[in-house]
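From the thread on structure requests for the teaching lab: each student submitted one protein with a one-line request. Submission from student K.M.:

"Model Chromosome partition protein Smc from Seohaeicola nanhaiensis, tokens only."
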Amino acid sequence: MRFDRLRLSGFKSFVDPTELVIAEGLTGVVGPNGCGKSNLLEALRWVMGENRPTAMRGGGMEDVIFAGAATRPARNFAEVSLVLDNSERLAPAGFNDSDQLEVVRRITRDVGSAYKANAKDVRARDIQMLFADASTGAHSPALVRQGQISELINARPQARRRILEEAAGISGLYQRRHEAELKLNGAEANLSRVDDVLEQLA
Ligand code: ATP
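Reply posted by the TA:
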């Protein structure tokens, strides 16, 4: 699925609604230091479900909300929307009923994050899975932030393996396996409780 446009409002330094058209081919973002280039990349990660404040260069998730400036008060929410081209119907079932898929994430102070896909409420997990399956998730190696190349060179083999798995599009399967294991453990615990009850009845 191709990214068509990114819309930001109240996200970090992008206090006013800003729209970025992502044309076909390679996209470069240029500008002076501190103008918000990295914030754009972070907005992309964030709308795809990034939940680690460190990955967003913040102390807490609410740090993505515009914190105010000398002439402007802080905002109460931040919103990022990513419009995807789904004309080839590559989105997974449940997201695949139109040519365009718009994913919106909004965070409100003291309330938290909420996600929408084509205006319908969805869970964070659904969005994370959508992008993990499309190999473009929040941790995707396709998004290269500053300093990441040297981190990669110095990374331990296990960390490098995770990057290769993300690129191969199998990280969604790992998440599903983990969830299946949790369910299995829960079922085993229930079974042993049933055994105890049966023993007491015998
Ligand atoms: P460089 O080229 O130096 O890496 P850059 O263009 O990548 O810079 P960013 O790091 O994206 O710039 O943007 C940094 C700017 O964003 C800083 O001016 C910082 O004050 C501002 N900023 C970050 N978080 C917030 C926030 N929550 N509210 C307001 N401004 C913010």
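TA comment: The helical segments are 37-47, 124-133, 148-154, 157-168, 171-201. Residues 12-13, 31, 33-39, 63, 65-67 surround adenosine-5'-triphosphate (CB under 6 Å).
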